Amino acid sequence: MDTQNDVQQFLTALRARITPERAGLTVFGGERRVPGLRREEVAQLAGVSTAYYTRMERGDLGGVSESVLFALVRALQLDAAEAAHLFDLARSATGPRRGPRAKPESRVSPLVAQLLETMRDVPAIAMNRVATAAGSNALGRALFPHLFPADAAPLNSARYLFLDERSRSFYPDWETTAREAVSALRLLAGRDPSDRALMALVGELATRSPEFRTWWGGHTVRTHTTGTKRINHPVVGEITLAFETLVLPSSNGIVIATYLTEPGSSSADALDLLRSWAAQPLSSPSDAASTH
Fold it and tell me: Distances in Å between the alpha carbon of 82 and those of 11, 86, 226?
């Protein structure tokens, strides 16, 4: 991935979204040709020269100090995810250039697999760094049946979202969920732009999905470690889930996503029904669907 180009597009997008009024600048008469701040206005807010900021926006972050980066964070009013992404891009831009490299595939250890299975009442899925399911418990597989085909390896969730038509009916808020997936991949690309598996995934999705290609070019970054998600399950219908992501520092990028429902709600009833099916030996959502 081209880190210099990513820096340029990221800073340009951030500058365009902030109006002078929002930045606390006095605006005099005359028509503005840019939707947000001018380069000289960002430079003024960050306390650097216009030439210096222009060099940074063009992707040249060599020699830029942390204090200047923090000044940019304040000037552009970045949130925590955006600030972390800016620092990641700066490290990638100033460090030694690396060619594409394969990273060891993250696997679920026997201990983590045992942990997942003991969480019988909570749907739990372990994901690797590029959001491919690396493990789950029975209820997690029942909740997301498309990700766990019976006759094949688990699917990558981003490929499922953008290349599998079933995802658009499975997620009533498909666009929100898909944009979140793009954002997560953007953050990963900032941390390690030489990751060959990530490069291959992004290249495939950008080639085959116009939505992915457009949103990837927007350089939006957000963290999505907790929140709510709606699904339209093929067996039990619509469920609203609260999710929480658990990071496993000892597992080389593996995270566990857990899902809960509000007690006493229709979603809780639906999950209880799914839980009873998942507890039955040799049962599956498709089997249940044929008898429902």
Answer: 10, 6, 17
Q: Does domain 110-291 have CATH number 3.30.450.180?
A: yes
Return d(Cα 172, Cα 239) in angstroms, integer. 10
- Can 3-94 and 110-291 be said to share one CATH topology? no
**Cross-strand bridge partners of residue 246:** 256
pLDDT digits (tens, 9 = 90+) for 98-140: 555 566 677 888 889 999 999 989 999 999 989 999 999 999 9
In sequence order, the 6+-apart residues with CB closer than 8 A to the CB of 175 are 211
Q: Does domain 3-94 have CATH number 1.10.10?
A: no
Distance CA(219)–CA(14), nearest Å, equals 9
Tens-digit pLDDT profile for residues 188-197: 888 888 888 8
Q: How far apart are the first and last CA of the chain?
A: 48
Residue 206 in contact with residue 18, Cβ under 8 Å? no
Taking the CA atoms of residue 76, residue 82, residue 86 and residue 88 in that order, the dihedral angle to the nearest 10 degrees is 170
pTM listed for this prediction: 0.79
Q: Do 196 and 103 meet the contact criterion of CB atoms below 8 Å apart?
A: yes
Domain boundaries, the chain: 3-94, 110-291
DSSP 8-state code for residue 145: G
Q: Across the strands, what pairs with 257?
A: 125, 245
Q: Which residues contact 203 (CB under 8 A, 6 or more apart)?
A: none
